[in-house]
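Two records follow; treat each independently.
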Amino acid sequence: IRGYIDAALSAATVRELAALDVTMLRESGTTCLLGFGLTADAKDSEHYLPFFAAVSPALGAGGYEAASEQQKAAYLRYVETLYGLLGISEERAAQMAQLIWTADSAAAAVSMTNQELSDVDNTYNIYTLSELEALFPEADLKALFDAYGLRNAGRIQVYDPEAVKAVAALFVPEQLETLRAYVLLGIA
């Protein structure tokens, strides 16, 4: 994984980090930021439907807002430890862990609850690849979609659109370090 770590650390743009996701998928079968998959169409069980997902908060809806200072500190230590295993300095690991906490908190605040996610009417949100590309202009979603070997990009399910939009807001140059933190955490 050293090559992936080095590529993540040296990426100078959001586009480079997003391209690393495609490379990692092709070479190792995993991504850290964005992904596609295939699921049974919940409204037409005789067919399958591609779905799109973005990195999601580890603690889920409410897990950040309701966390005590002790719980937050334990989570940050855990994330810092993972970064340390990649050879990242303690200071940088602490900064990256805080970036993850902040970004995850924002995404969790708009994410559906487990109860909401269990309702097909809430999660059956159909997008086109073009609509998703408009949300993530700095990521080559067509290349990622193709790398999964999927076809028919005309109908793609997005389970939690508001959470995806919260992650999409990170795909700007000002959030490069946050995205780098996510990629490195995914590698760890």
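The next record belongs to a different protein.
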Amino acid sequence: MAAEWLADDLWRAHVSWLTPPWVGNTDGGRAAFDAREWLNRIERAHYRSLIFYTKHHDGYCTFRSRYSRLQPERDFLGECVEEAHRRGVRVLAYYSSCLDQVSGREHAGWRVLGRDGNPAEGWFSNLWPGAYVCINNPDYRSLVLNQCAELLERYAVDGLWLDVFSPHTADN
């Protein structure tokens, strides 16, 4: 795939649309998601590419993953990619790989630990407690690789933004 557009199209819509379960019960929440309306607005703003969150630090996916216990009620990523490509707009799939609150909560053994044996803390701790998971843990790495492969195999995304958080400190 030619990637010249990636270097040339530096002005992208960054769609920070997240899907934890509590969002579904709010005005403008998940039930109100309308890919056509989003793309109408993105096109009116003259964007030709967008970044769409497939999994944020909270750990919830916007697509139905074979590797997640928690599933969204709709395939939000699929709806967005389909509508974007129908209009010639490119989609980069954003995936948070080291901050994953769902995995950290469900698998405490996957968390990054400090030298004192307690979960490592950082700027993210108040927002996503227990979310800092270790990409070097074989089980968590398998989850990340499987979900990324799933994204690339099932969706015609134009790129993958793998968000990797790695504070290298002597304490971790």
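Discussion point: The first helix runs from residue 4 to 8. How would you locate this feature using only the token line?
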